[in-house]
Specification:
Helix content: 25-40%
CATH class of the largest domain: Alpha Beta
Mean pLDDT: 91
Order of helices and strands: EHHEEEHEHEHEHEEH
Largest sheet: 5 strands, parallel
Strand order of the largest sheet: 2-1-6-5-7
Distance between the termini: 35 Å
CATH superfamily of the largest domain: SPOUT methyltransferase, trefoil knot domain
CATH architecture of the largest domain: 3-Layer(aba) Sandwich
Radius of gyration: 22 Å
Number of helices: 7
Structural class: alpha/beta
């Protein structure tokens, strides 16, 4: 599976995508990550990718064609023999990204993640991209971020951990088993400021049905 990030800040993304479980998945060639910067596809000598918005307003807007050309270049480097491609567009008003959406993206060979900046990307870019491949619009969380890189990293992480062999065991994908937001480990009792904090007794019984019921209630 290959993820293509369209971003002005490759170095910020690659630091995260080279670490921990996602980094190991890259080393083991379970996933591949490529980058394209819209700056490489501008028609001016300054590498300028933004302009003032029509209709006025604060900030600047990323121009459409450099983004579209970066996506086109990404898909030219798609996975060998790939058939299924999708472009992910980020918007605070988009559909909230869920575990079901992550499961759906696993089925694609190439996922292009378009990371906007400033006040966003000229809307015409999204319309042009729909002529290239399927475009899905997502929001990741209800907050507004400085750019699309943080949502893109969240999606790469969520999808990668679902790929066979990435976590070692399928049961490690929490949402595929009965999981609780409250987890405990050794020691059984912690003394902190003269108060004892103990592991719930049910977790020490080894009675799986009771433990599952406790986790459901949590």
């Amino acid at each position: 599976m290959k993820f293509h990030l369209i971003t002005l800040f490759e170095e910020a993304c690659d630091a995260y995508l080279s670490a921990s479980i996602v980094g190991r998945a890259r080393k083991e060639k379970k996933i591949f990550v490529t980058y394209q910067t819209p700056r490489d596809f501008v028609d001016n000598k300054w590498g300028k990718v933004d302009e003032r918005p029509y209709g006025g307003g604060p900030g600047m807007v990323m121009t459409a064609l450099p983004v579209v050309r970066a996506v086109e270049k990404s898909l030219k480097t798609r996975t060998k023999g790939a058939r299924k491609q999708i472009i992910v567009w980020f918007s605070p008003s988009g559909k909230q990204f869920t575990n079901k959406d992550a499961d759906a993206l696993v089925k694609y060979d190439d996922v292009v993640l378009v990371c906007g900046r400033y006040e966003g990307i000229d809307e015409r870019a999204r319309k042009m991209l729909k002529t290239i491949a399927t475009v899905k619009e997502f929001a990741v969380g209800e907050a507004v971020y400085t750019g699309g890189e943080v949502p893109a990293l969240a999606i790469v992480d969520a999808v990668t951990r679902r790929l066979p062999g990435v976590l070692g065991k399928d049961a490690s994908v929490e949402e595929r088993r009965i999981a609780s937001s409250a987890v405990y480990t050794r020691p059984e009792t912690i003394l902190y400021k003269e108060k004892k904090y103990k592991v719930p007794k049910v977790l020490q019984t080894g009675h799986h049905a009771n433990i599952d019921e406790w986790r459901k209630n949590k």
